[in-house]
Amino acid sequence: MVLKVVLFDFNGVIINDEPIHRQLIDEILLAENLRPATYQEHQEFCLGRSDRVCLRTILAHRGRNVSEEYLTKLIDNKAIAYRQKLEQLDTLPIYPGIKKILDQIQLKGWLLGLVTGAVKGETISVLQKADIFDYFQIIVAGDEINTSKPQPDGYLLAVERFNQSHPELHLQPANCLAIEDTLAGITAAKKAGISVIGIAHTYPYHFMHRHANWAVDKLSEIDLDRIEVAFARKVDSVGN
After folding, report:
1. E strand segments, the chain
2. What is the CA radius of gyration of the chain?
3. pTM of the full predicted structure?
4. What is the number of domains present in the chain?
């Protein structure tokens, strides 16, 4: 099997912005006269999931059922607030080593895509500010699909889009590698038939080791030569 495409998650893999998202979700809840999300609710309902699914689930958990139109309004307001928060920072909280690993992937001749539950506008804005937008040929964002991780739809759509833009690839999920930091993301990739590197940015290493095909503590530990050999041998390696 030949590796052809590497698909990155965004929040928690490229940018360390989970604390910002949690703060903004709590601000939305307070504006709705509801108590902030507990740590457990945030872990269960939000990590790795789209804003729409996160907010819908938390609101329902509070006994508040809202229309899709109202949810869209909340998400749009959150996206504006997110950009404002980032503009107030002296430095974007981009994880160290991201440009280096992207360069190494390109040197291998593999294409790059991004599959995220984040809104596309805020995702592109961050990638541009971090000067890494041009690395990614395909972006599938949370506001482009009706489902969210742990469902595989985002990853399957990424494969479809690569085949539309690069028909010569004849891309199959088995030709792809995902890089994820949450159980929802790992599950989504695996459901799509994609092998996963779990990076211990959000959950501890032993958790990533248990659930992903490979596990690393940080981006600089990703061994692309080893991954390439594993694909060539059709090895479904679990853990390190």
Report:
1. 5-8, 111-115, 138-140, 176-180, 195-199, 214-216
2. 18
3. 0.90
4. 2
Residues 6+ apart with CB under 8 A from 159: 5, 171, 172, 173, 176, 192
Using DSSP's 3-state secondary structure scheme, residue 170 falls into coil
Q: Which residue range(s) make up the domain with 177?
A: 5-16+95-232
User: What pLDDT, in 10s, does the model give residues 193-233?
Assistant: 999 999 999 999 999 999 999 999 999 999 999 999 999 98
User: What kind and span of H or E run contains 229?
Assistant: helix 224-232
- Residue 63 half-sphere exposure, CB side, CA atoms within 13 Å? 3
67 plus 170 within the same structural domain? no
CB 203 within 8 A of CB 223: no
**124-135 b/e (C-beta count within 10 Å ≥ 16 → b):** bbbbeeeebeeb
Rounded Cα gap, residues 109 and 92, in angstroms: 28
Q: Look at residue 25 and tell me if it is in a domain.
A: yes
CA 240 – CA 234 distance, rounded (Å): 16
Q: Which of 49, 69, 87 corresponds to the end of one domain?
A: 87
The number of residues making up the chain comes to 240
What pLDDT does residue 234 have? 67
Tell me the pairing of strands 195-199 and 111-115. Answer: unpaired
